[in-house]
């Protein structure tokens, strides 16, 4: 394992996109692109949390904790793509995933975190026309999300249920055929990614690890970390993970690490 970067406050939302690694530092309010081992801040977000993905035309989209879906224009400006505040109430929006048809999925954890009484969360869909609606409910702390390579399945980490849950994506973006993709036992999935073979890697904060799991729950590899694993991405034969000491005091003790696969 190699430490690529030190000094992150709270890294999240790792993504491999167009041959480069991207991630968010929630504590610093930054969206970062890595060029080799060099970090470049691509945008600043005044909210917490926030996560990223890309539309089919290549434009970056960002979901903010308060429910604004932002779009990064070619000149670097951020504009509002959709407003989800009416769907999520006062509770924070979390992760985002975009399918090849341009359906944008974002999830809301459904309660005040940290400190609130746990309650089920939801998943919303923003269509290519910008209209937003709820497409899944009763998700136990919806966290990392990813769409399979064929664009037909959305996989969601249910952190408080210890499982990965799958939905079939309909032509209009609706979610159906809900099913357990993998039971994780003691695993607590946070950020996830899907590798080239269709396996899911999930980062695990309390267990300080990243785990590769197949549909059905078989574990094929575990990478132990020296602090909590918040999110992970695979690119060019390398597993990247952002880690932090949790709970922490907001100090820049997080890292970006790389593990050859």
TrEMBL record:
GO molecular function, one term: calcium ion binding
Residue sites binding a divalent metal cation per the record: 12, 143, 190
Active site (catalytic residues): 190
Domain SMP-30/Gluconolactonase/LRE-like region residues, every copy: 10-226
Keywords: Metal-binding, Zinc
Cofactor note: Binds 1 divalent metal cation per subunit.
GO biological process, one term: L-ascorbic acid biosynthetic process
Cofactor(s) for this UniProt protein: Zn(2+)
Name of the protein: Gluconolaconase
Pfam (any one): SGL
UniProt binding sites for substrate: 94
Family indicated by similarity: Belongs to the SMP-30/CGR1 family.
């Amino acid at each position: 394992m190699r430490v690529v970067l030190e000094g992150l406050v709270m890294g999240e939302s790792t993504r491999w996109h167009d041959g480069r690694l991207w991630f968010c530092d929630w504590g610093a309010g930054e969206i970062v692109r890595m060029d080799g081992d060099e970090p470049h801040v691509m945008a600043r977000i005044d909210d917490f949390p926030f996560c990223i993905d890309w539309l089919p035309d290549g434009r970056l989209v960002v979901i903010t904790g308060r429910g604004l879906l932002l779009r990064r224009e070619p000149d670097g400006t951020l504009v509002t793509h959709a407003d989800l505040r009416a769907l999520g109430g006062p509770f924070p929006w979390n992760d985002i995933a975009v399918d090849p048809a341009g359906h944008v999925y974002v999830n809301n954890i459904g309660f005040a975190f940290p400190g609130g009484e746990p309650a089920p969360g939801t998943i919303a869909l923003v269509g290519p026309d910008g209209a937003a609606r709820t497409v899944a409910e009763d998700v136990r702390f919806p966290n990392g999300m990813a769409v399979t390579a064929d664009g037909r399945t959305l996989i969601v980490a249910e952190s408080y249920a210890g499982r990965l849950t799958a939905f079939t994506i309909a032509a209009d973006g609706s979610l159906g055929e809900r099913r357990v993709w993998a039971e994780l036992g003691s695993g607590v999935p946070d950020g996830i990614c899907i590798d080239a073979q269709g396996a899911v890697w999930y980062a695990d904060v309390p267990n300080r690890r990243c785990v590769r799991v197949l549909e059905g729950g078989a574990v094929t590899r575990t990478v132990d970390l020296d602090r909590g694993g918040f999110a992970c991405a695979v690119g060019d034969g390398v597993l990247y993970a952002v880690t932090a000491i949790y709970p922490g005091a907001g100090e820049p003790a997080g890292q970006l690490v790389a593990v050859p696969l």
